[in-house]
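dumping this here before i forget
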Amino acid sequence: MNLVIVFSLLFLLFSGGRAGIVSFDRDNSPPAILLVPGAFHQAVVYDTVGHLLKNAGYNGVVEAINLPSVGSLASRDDDVKALRRVMDKYLDLGRDIVLVGNSYGCTVIGDAVLNIPSATTTPPYDEEGRRRGRVVSLLYFSGYLPYTEQVVHPETKPDIRLVSPKWFAFLPNDSPSAIPKTVRWDGDLQSSPPDKEFYNVLAQRNPAAANYWVGQLRYSSFAALNATARYIPYNGDFRVIYVAGKQDNSVPPELWHSYLDQPGAKFILEVLDGDHVPMLSRPEEVVKLIINYTKL
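structure:
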């Protein structure tokens, strides 16, 4: 047999028939874990979690995504599109995915699963008879979430300036009627500094680390944070896990209970002894939860 044909056949065998793509078992490979940060934060906050997932024996793909709206004036749609590009990469290859969000990032992963098959459905197949991927789980760590009523009736959603915590700073603020461009985290540094609102558990153990992460904070786009969500995934279509922090100073129990207690809401509740950004303060516990919910 011609050597060119031999090498071509070998390449197709090991690439799954698709140039430039390494093949894997569509039915038995672990899901890809996609990690989405919250407002003001970049994907680097998941670095420790990513390393621990590998050290814990997880042999799947772990990928953290930077949101375009952090450090720019990008929209919520831009955030969702950035995540969907990564999601589609794996779903098209037949790889299931687990979505992990923190704070505002939970709303992003919720919008991103619109029209995406979940693990509660029969596995879909493409036109060539190959199984496509599904969403196994959505994990909301300290999530700020849209209410069902606000998605069904968008006119009921209040402007974020009317319901935001006091440490949000909206700029420019030279006129009450002006539409802000950005949201910052330093509106009340005296009583609500970031090491209290975001990193209070981390600050107790390692003040220097908390100070480092305060220095990494960026502004977020007002348009992104003020946008109305387009989809509610916690109505039973998907397996959604809400992870509350016992010491979360940003999302207190009365707030996260208001999400869970909505009519028709279907959540699995997990509670960590953590703060608002548990991937920094309780990375080991975060990893255990993620791995647990990679299983169907």
